[in-house]
Amino acid sequence: MIEIINSSFMTSAPNIRLTPENEFMNEVAFMARSNTGKSSLLNTLTNRKSLAKVSATPGKTRLINYFDVEFADRNTGERLGALFVDLPGFGYAKVAKSLKTDWESNLTSFIAERKQIAIFVHLIDCRHPDLDIDRSVADYLNEICTPNQSILTVFTKIDKLNQKELSELKKRFPDALMISNSKRRGVDKIVEIIYHLLRSDNNV
Question: Which CATH architecture is the domain 2-201 placed in?
Answer without folding.
Answer: 3-Layer(aba) Sandwich (3.40)
